[in-house]
Predict the 3D structure of the following.
Amino acid sequence: MKPFLNEDFLLESDPARVLYHEYAKDMPIIDYHCHLPPGDIAADRKFENITQIWLNGDHYKWRAMRANGVPEKYITGNAGDREKFNNWAETVPYTLRNPLYHWTHLELKNYFSITGLFNKESADTVWQETREKLQTDAFSVRNLLLRMKVKLLCTTDDPVDSLEDHIKIWKDGYGIRVLPTWRPDKAMAVENPATYNKYLDQLSEVSGIHISSVDDLLLALARRHDFFHENGCRLSDHGLETFYAMDFTDKKVSEIFNHIRTGKSLLQEDILVFKSAMLVHFARMDHAKNWTQQFHVGAIRNNNPKMFSLVGPDTGYDSIGDFEIARPMARFFSRLDAEDKLTRTIVYNLNPRDNELIATMLYNFNDGNEPGKMQFGSGWWFLDQKDGIEDQLNILSNMGLLSRFVGMLTDSRSFLSYPRHEYFRRILCNLVGHDMEKGEMPHDLDLAGQMIQNICYHNAKAYFRFDK
């Protein structure tokens, strides 16, 4: 019997094995969207133990532990690191057929050369072995990234962020480029007047512009947008339930802004109008600087109010939403296209019912000026598992050009998450290998292999224009 996670894991045909081992495996990584803390990279942090680098902040694992009956004390609570690790070790055998089972074992194998099954019986050995290795220079954050062949990564950053960590990393001459991504969600989050006005005070301080009107707001954001560009940023990102595409006038947006600046709550319609206006302004800024804009759509967040009050956001209480997508998406892109201000765009979808919808809608706005301008993004969040990845690849292939796809990203807060690129590459090679075996693609390994190398690395390198 072959050991679990042998070299041909997920590769079910001879062409798949050749495509992975000879074409995909050693390609470098451009991780163009992640949530890694740049401060840890700037400090070249060493983690004391595997809990700190592996479990802290990983809401995928937290959801599984809760489902397995683990009390919150051992997940986000005040239990010790070893206690939390032990509870994860006891949970892992129950994750069979969940992608966490694959990811867990890939992470132990690729970073620590641990190849046995992980469970409560092996927990002591894994704890000791990983703890010893994490104390060494080879396991500092910067060296872990180098080991995974990462060439460039983009963090996720608010307009008020100082980018001091990115600047330090650049000045240090680190071999991996670590660039910011502009994520201005808070600049349009007018649902809570008190929180929003506090945020505007922060923005005013860092931009040097007193914000008393919507024009001041846009000027302050433009100044920060310039600052991000000067420090290597070439992408924006937006986390949306759906696209906001209400009609608006400058006068109406100004009235809404003045109203919320008094601390008063807005009507729901006014909230949507303001968000619609801001989203258009952000898109115009991105186009002016030739950035790529990213949209993550379809999540309904913070669904458990009790737990939100206890542990806050991004802790595993979000899920797939069921929002109207098609018409607002069409209106939003149509407005920008009519102004000739639609920049390169990636849309990541969370509800699988909308995959074909989004893939076909995006292709309405390719203009022939550059290949792959409008991208149906990789499987995201609940969909970055085997079925979700295959579905995204198949839909992209059927509705568009897989050959122009910019490939996988981690979308992760963990420095041990880079095996997700290997996971994606194995699934991609297996899919293409099956087509070759069935005669649905030419049995031309160089032809297919070049496409796979482009998807793994070359397309992203050309598409994002980080050197311009």
Notes: The beta strands are 29-31, 150-154, 177-179, 235-240, 292-297, 299-300, 319-320, 344-349, 374-376. DSSP finds 19 helices and nine strands in the chain. The two ends are 51 Å apart (CA to CA). Residues 29 and 457 are 6 Å apart (CA to CA).
